[in-house]
Amino acid sequence: MTTALLHPGRQPERGARLPPLLRLLMVTQLAFNLGFFAVLPFLGEHLGGGVGLAGWWVGFVLGLRTFSQQGLFVVGGALADRYGVRPVVLAGCALRIAGFGWLGYAERIWTVVGAVLLTGFAAALFSPAVESEVARQAVLHEKSGGGPRTRVLALFTVAGQAGAFVGPLLGALLLQVDFRAVCLAGAGVFVLVLAAHAWLLPQRIPGRARVRVRGGAGPLLRDRRFLALCCAYGAYLLAYNQLYLALPAEVERAAGSQTPLAWLFALSSLLVVTAQLPVTRWAAERLSLRRAMAAGLVLIAAGFAVVAAALPAGRTGTAGLLPAAGFVVLLTLGQMLVAPAARAWVPDLAADGRSGLYTGALSSGSGLIVLLGSAATGALLDVGLPAAVPWLLLAAVPAAAVALLPRQDPREAPG
Q: Where does the record place the Major facilitator superfamily (MFS) profile domain (predicted)?
């Protein structure tokens, strides 16, 4: 069912101008990722080479950062429901400034751990607050005739990807000075974000009622449809995480170094920036949210299958990298379908006034799946199985997730 079918006689307006609050939140996402990705790509090397941590410590600290962020999204979402978007976003920005500043001067393991925890928790505050409000505003924009909600969420994704693309370039430039300069620049970006939001973000956003923190988790944990969505989204994130786990191993096998990996990441970012909006527009006109997610998961499974099919030939060099490039393209196309549809679906499943809690729970629940699944994947890659077997098993994960997707209520607006 499409939006046009839900509203006979009224066609969605393509490219309708976004209201000021949505435009602010889009720029917010770009700035968040610009500041974050100016620092993150260089953190592991700094911890190993600059601070002198052992490899297992580096892995532990990087994992701790992910856990302190994704694992606590549900806390940030609940706080946004209780106190509103503005104070939670401002508090998160202040903590990120402090965390980046501290990280630039941290030279001992426990100071590094403290700084990393602070930067992770900062994102656990502001990200679910912003994401839940974008999703809520996207629904309102759709109901007012501004076009499908997935278009708004696709713009949000593009803004974030643009920041993720420019951030490492800024960080690499400043790394010529030192890592401290990188951290202070990242902190400076968040100083600007904090100042802009203190000035522009409304004290109270119309239509967003504040609710008490307690009492929302029980219904959420009993909501089978939402939990099914979390599991399917977690399968997608686990597959997406193979950009950082299985793909580097395959690139090393085919090329003998990690050098081509940067080009494959650039390919993914470029695809999102240039193709996200056309793909989302196409899906909104033809697919329900469930079918969009299903199609995306099938594409992702096909990406793993491409590498699995090519591995027995054992090709190396440029020819050996072609399956990895195919994997990146199919994974990215699948992401373009899955991510906006999942975010667009949450407002339909969330209890009244609990959009922040449900948005945070989607990230926390799926993040837990990724944490457990990544450990299993790492073990799978290390046990000496034929090279194609781990990729085939990974292909089965998003394929099986299609069956987990909840049925969509006809009353819910699709993409």
A: 1-413
Encoding tokens for residue 397? 């994960």
Chain segment 348-398, per-residue pLDDT in tens:
887 666 666 787 788 778 777 877 777 777 778 777 788 889 999 999 999
Q: Same CATH fold, 216-407 and 18-204? A: yes
Q: Which of 415, 158, 152 is nearest to 283 (CA)?
A: 415
How far apart are the C-alpha atoms of 246 and 220, rounded to whole Å?
33
Residue 296 half-sphere exposure toward CB, CA atoms < 13 A:
30
pLDDT greater at residue 262 or residue 134: 134
Q: How far apart are CA 221 and CA 414, in angstroms?
A: 24
- Rounded-to-integer distance, Cα 71 and Cα 75, Å: 9
- What percent of the chain has a predicted confidence (pLDDT) above 70? 86
Q: pLDDT tens digits, residue range 315-352?
A: 888 888 999 999 999 999 999 999 888 888 887 887 66
Would you list the domain boundaries of the chain?
Answer: 18-204, 216-407
Give the separation between CA 317 and CA 326, rounded to whole angstroms. Answer: 15
Q: Which fold has domain 18-204?
A: Growth Hormone; Chain: A; (1.20.1250)
- Supply the CATH classification number for the domain 216-407: 1.20.1250.20
Predicted model pTM: 0.70
Pair 124, 364: CB distance under 8 Å: no
